[in-house]
Specification:
The strands form three sheets. The protein has a five-stranded mixed β-sheet with strand order 5-4-3-8-9, with helices on both faces. A two-stranded antiparallel sheet has the order 1-2. Helix 7 packs parallel to helix 11 and helix 13 packs antiparallel against helix 14. Among the domains are: about 110 residues, no CATH class; about 140 residues, no CATH class; about 90 residues, de novo design (two linked rop proteins). The chain has about 525 residues and is α/β, with parallel strands linked by helices.
Length: about 525
């Protein structure tokens, strides 16, 4: 090949002119490409229309509220603390010396350099227990008992692994069965189901005690619910919790009576006391009916059957009026039971404004309130401007409410109440927005509950985050088929979440409860909850 012909060097002005020409040509090409893409899309839409197909969907971009994150204070600019040595946080189980194969002649030994490697050992381990048998002088046979924690033909470490994988890692039962088989564990599907759903009374009871401890010691709780399937029927899973605990209960109803029954924390009695009568008056139960219940000497009933018999004897069941006297009286008696057992003594219930949660001292979630304005359909520029203006005012008020929680003062309380009134009673000219603002203003007491109780949260994000695990389980496993399976699913989900809130390893918790040899001792979770509630 002949060498390339050298072109004469360009002057600075010629280079600038060439660059400008290339840039202009590039811009023109970009414009042509964009136009071709537009024409191609239009042609595709026209062909689709002529074929009778659907047109291109007009998808409205999703704009989440971001209210909580948007009002966070800027993080401090301090330098991050060093992470620390990994070696100091680990227990070295084994040391191995790695030798040089053949050091060159004349080399001198200079000691060792350490290289820490973390690994995991998972192997099947079958133990044949040879239990001694002795015959006493009177002919009775005595057999040595199996070690603590061994229940059936599967050891505590295997049960611990199965429960952790299913409930914390949320592995499906078929995949867990396949994993166990691949590891060399001989177990049938029926045996695995039994391991997950039967003989778990200790865990179910501790989960119930967690709810009792939480409701008796908490200054506030947040609540939420979501759909759940049980025995091929639709139901609802209710979450109750705060920063120290979480509890889940799946039932077939999401009524207020159902919520009140969950708040009894496992108790089944019905009590007529001052709190019960006050509840009935608040719910507009007829005065003569309240007098019948208040004047009767029997005030406590152990179960639903005895309570219904009492209502029948008083003639309340036969009444056909509105509101339903049986329903209101039953709700009141359940609320009386809640109070009689020392639950929710001075506790604020924060919810998303679902009607069934409106009992006792009630606060509302600001995120859900602002979301109503955020999701409002707008049709004109004036509507959108009014919506944006109101949302900005609410965000600023929300940020100041968060600041009030950190440093409550009487002056700021009065100022925040005045700002709330000014924002939610203004006339924007957007009729739908104005009606929504009046509706929110009617909830002033619940939305501004934080001014009376600065310790409560302004949202229910904690409950929504907790209940996502139930939603995930529902999506990957469907529903439960037995009452035992439903109880275990709710109990272990609550126990795992509670362990996380209390900074307790769920793996360690299972090891202690299943009597795994050498497992770390974990106190009773209700004790930890009460201690955390009493801590300053």
């Amino acid at each position: 090949m002949s060498p390339p012909i050298d072109s004469p060097p360009l002057s600075s002005a010629e280079k600038d002119a060439l660059i400008a020409s290339l840039c202009a040509e590039n811009d023109e090409l970009k414009t042509m490409v964009a136009e071709l893409q537009r024409l191609a899309a239009a042609l595709h839409d026209e062909i689709t229309r002529l074929k009778g197909g659907p047109g291109r969907p007009n998808i409205k971009p999703s704009k989440p509220s971001g209210m909580e994150r948007g009002t966070e204070r800027d993080p401090p600019k301090d330098k991050k603390a060093p992470r620390g040595s990994t070696r100091s946080k680990l227990t070295v189980n084994e040391e191995k010396v790695v030798k040089v194969a053949a050091p060159p002649p004349g080399s001198r030994f200079k000691g060792y350099t350490s290289y820490l490697v973390q690994d995991l050992v998972i192997v099947p381990h079958a133990v044949n227990f040879r239990c001694e048998r002795w015959q006493t002088a009177d002919g009775e046979m005595i057999t040595a008992p199996l070690p603590t924690g061994v229940d059936g033909h599967f050891g505590p470490q295997l049960r611990r692994f199965v429960l952790a994988q299913y409930h914390e890692a949320q592995t499906t039962m078929p995949r867990l069965l396949t994993l166990l088989h691949s590891l060399g564990i001989l177990i049938s599907k029926r045996q695995l189901v039994r391991m997950l759903t039967t003989e778990q009374d200790d865990f179910v009871n501790e989960a119930r005690d967690v709810l009792h401890a939480g409701l008796s010691s908490a200054s506030w709780i947040t609540v939420d619910d979501t759909g759940a399937r049980h025995k091929a029927s639709n139901g609802f899973c209710t979450q109750i919790g705060n920063d120290d605990f979480a509890w889940f209960g799946t039932t077939g109803s999401k009524s207020r009576l159902n919520f009140l029954e969950l708040l009894r924390a496992g108790n089944t009695d019905y009590v007529i006391n001052d709190e019960a009568l006050a509840y009935m008056r608040q719910r507009a139960l007829a005065g003569p009916v309240i007098d019948l219940l208040a004047e009767h000497p029997d005030k406590q009933f152990p179960h639903h059957k005895a309570w219904n018999a009492h209502l029948d004897a008083l003639g309340i069941t036969a009444l056909k009026v509105n509101p339903n006297p049986v329903l209101i009286a039953t709700e009141g008696a359940v609320w009386g039971s809640v109070k009689a057992h020392g639950l929710l003594a001075d506790t604020v219930i924060v919810s998303d404004d679902a009607g069934q949660f409106n009992v006792g001292d009630h606060g509302l979630c600001w995120i859900h309130a602002e979301r109503l304005i955020h999701k409002l359909d707008t049709f004109t520029d004036a509507h959108r401007a009014a919506q944006d203006s109101v949302r900005k005012q609410i965000w600023e008020l929300y940020a100041d409410l968060k600041a009030y929680r950190r440093d409550p003062t009487p002056d700021s309380k009065v100022a925040l109440q005045a700002r709330f009134d000014a924002i939610l009673t203004q006339k924007t000219g957007f009729a739908t927005l104005d009606r929504l603002l009046r509706r929110l203003h009617a909830n002033k007491t619940e939305l501004l509950m934080v001014l009376e109780r600065p310790e409560i949260p302004l949202h229910t994000n904690g409950s929504e985050n907790d209940i996502r695990s139930q939603v995930t389980r529902r999506k990957i496993s469907g529903g439960t088929r037995s009452d035992g399976g439903r109880q275990c699913r709710d109990a272990f989900l609550g126990l795992a979440k509670t362990c996380g809130k209390l900074a307790v390893s769920f793996w360690d918790y299972l090891g202690d409860r299943l009597a795994v040899p050498g497992a770390k001792v974990i106190p009773h979770l209700p004790e930890l909850i009460r201690a955390s509630a009493q801590a300053p």
